C-alpha cells in the first residue's frame, strides 16, 4: 500500500517477494521514520490457519504511527489484506508444534527529501517468513542481564511505540549481553535507573510470594499483546496479578529472602520464556533452580493451546 498526501493510502496489492527500490534521499534512511509490528499465523490441529489478536497489532501500529507523525491506516482494511495474504501463502506455514508463520507489517517514510520534517509519502508493506521457536534454548530458561549503563526509553520518548529507533539504540546493550553469555537485556527506567521496564523483545513478569507482578505501562514500555493476554489469563484463573512499579531492589531482595519464585517474559516470538539466570551488578541470581515454574508452564500451555486450537478460545482472541 502506498501513501501520498494527494491520494491518501492507495494502490493496495499482493505481489511476489522482491527487492524494492527507494531514492537514497528517502527520509526513512536519514531520520528513522519507520514503525513495525510482529505477529504470527499458526496452523491449528484441525489444519486451519489461525491469527492471534491481529486487530491489536494494527491498533498498536496506528498508535506508533501517531507518535511518529505517520498517517493512520484503516485497521479493518489491513486485517482483510492480511487474511488474503495468509491465504495466498498458506502452504508456507509450517505445521510442527511450536512453529508458525512470522508476519512483519511495517511502514516507512519514502519521500526523497532531506528536510527534517514528516514525510508526505509512505509505504506500508507486510512480509512473512516461516519461523521455528525463537530462543535456541526453546522453552528452557533463558539468561538475561540487567542493564545499568544504557537506557532504552524515557517517559515522553518513543518507548511505547514500535519504532525502529528503539531497537537501534538497544543494539549495543544486546551485543554486550551476548558477549557475556546472556541472551537479552533487562531494561530499567530511563529516569531513576531503578524500576524494571521490559526485556529486549518481551515484557517481564515476576512471581513473588504467590503474586505475579509486572511493570505497569508508564509510556516507556511497549504494551505487549502477549502481556495483555497473559494478564487476562491470570485473572481468569484467579492467580493474583499486580501491574505496578517494581524496583530492581525489590526483585533482588525477594531473591535473597527466597520469595522470588518465578521470572518469565512474554512476547509474540518469545511466547512464555522462563528466566533462569539474571545478572545484576556482576552477580548472577539463579531463579527457581533454572526450572520452569508452575505459572510459566500454565501460561505457556494456555497460550500455545489457544494458538494451536487444542484448547477452546474462551477469550475470542483468534481469527480463522
Ligand atoms: N517489548 C518489546 C521491546 C518488544 O519488541 C516486544 C515484541 N513485540 C514485546 C515487548 C512483546 O510484545 P508482543 O507480546 O506484542 O509481541
TrEMBL record:
Q: Which Pfam families match?
A: Aminotran_4 (PF01063)
Q: Which UniProt keywords apply?
A: Amino-acid biosynthesis, Aminotransferase, Branched-chain amino acid biosynthesis, Pyridoxal phosphate, Transferase
Is Transferase one of the keywords?
A: yes
The domain of life is Bacteria
**GO MF annotations in UniProt:** branched-chain-amino-acid transaminase activity
Q: Which reaction does it catalyse?
A: L-leucine + 2-oxoglutarate = 4-methyl-2-oxopentanoate + L-glutamate; L-isoleucine + 2-oxoglutarate = (S)-3-methyl-2-oxopentanoate + L-glutamate; L-valine + 2-oxoglutarate = 3-methyl-2-oxobutanoate + L-glutamate
Q: Where is the signal peptide?
A: none
Pathway assigned in UniProt: Amino-acid biosynthesis; L-valine biosynthesis; L-valine from pyruvate: step 4/4; Amino-acid biosynthesis; L-isoleucine biosynthesis; L-isoleucine from 2-oxobutanoate: step 4/4; Amino-acid biosynthesis; L-leucine biosynthesis; L-leucine from 3-methyl-2-oxobutanoate: step 4/4
Q: List its EC numbers.
A: 2.6.1.42
Q: Which cofactor(s) does the record list? A: pyridoxal 5'-phosphate
Q: Which family does it belong to?
A: Belongs to the class-IV pyridoxal-phosphate-dependent aminotransferase family.
Descriptive protein name: Branched-chain-amino-acid aminotransferase
**Annotated source species:** Kurthia populi
Amino acid at each position: 500500500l502506498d501513501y501520498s498526501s494527494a491520494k491518501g493510502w492507495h494502490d493496495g496489492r499482493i505481489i511476489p517477494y522482491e527487492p524494492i527500490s527507494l531514492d537514497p534521499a528517502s527520509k526513512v534512511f536519514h531520520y528513522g521514520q519507520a514503525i513495525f509490528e510482529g505477529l504470527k499465523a499458526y496452523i491449528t490441529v484441525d489444519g486451519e490457519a489461525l491469527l492471534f489478536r491481529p486487530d491489536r497489532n494494527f491498533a498498536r501500529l496506528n498508535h506508533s504511527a501517531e507518535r511518529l507523525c505517520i498517517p493512520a491506516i484503516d485497521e479493518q482494511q489491513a486485517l482483510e489484506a492480511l487474511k488474503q495474504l495468509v491465504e495466498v501463502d498458506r502452504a508456507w506455514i509450517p505445521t510442527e508444534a511450536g512453529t508458525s508463520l512470522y508476519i512483519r507489517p511495517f511502514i516507512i517514510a519514502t519521500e526523497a527529501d532531506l528536510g527534517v520534517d514528516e514525510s508526505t509519502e509512505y509505504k506500508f508493506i507486510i512480509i512473512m517468513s516461516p519461523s521455528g521457536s525463537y530462543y535456541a534454548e526453546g522453552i528452557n530458561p533463558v539468561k538475561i542481564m540487567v542493564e545499568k549503563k544504557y537506557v532504552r526509553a524515557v517517559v515522553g520518548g518513543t518507548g511505547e511505540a514500535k519504532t525502529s529507533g528503539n531497537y537501534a539504540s538497544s543494539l549495543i546493550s544486546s551485543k554486550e549481553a551476548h558477549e557475556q553469555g546472556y541472551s537479552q537485556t533487562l531494561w530499567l527506567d530511563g529516569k531513576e535507573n531503578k524500576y524494571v521496564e521490559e526485556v529486549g523483545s518481551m515484557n517481564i513478569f515476576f512471581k513473588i510470594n504467590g503474586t505475579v507482578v509486572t511493570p505497569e505501562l508508564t509510556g516507556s514500555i511497549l504494551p505487549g499483546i502477549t502481556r495483555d493476554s497473559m494478564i487476562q489469563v491470570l485473572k481468569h484463573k484467579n492467580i493474583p496479578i499486580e501491574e505496578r512499579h517494581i524496583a530492581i531492589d525489590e526483585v533482588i531482595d525477594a531473591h535473597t529472602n527466597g520469595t522470588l519464585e518465578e521470572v518469565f517474559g512474554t512476547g509474540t516470538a518469545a511466547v512464555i520464556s522462563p528466566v533462569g539466570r539474571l545478572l545484576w551488578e556482576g552477580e548472577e541470581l539463579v531463579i527457581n533452580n533454572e526450572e520452569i515454574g508452575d505459572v510459566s508452564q500454565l501460561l505457556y500451555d494456555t497460550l500455545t493451546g489457544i494458538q494451536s486450537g487444542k484448547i477452546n478460545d474462551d477469550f475470542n482472541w483468534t481469527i480463522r
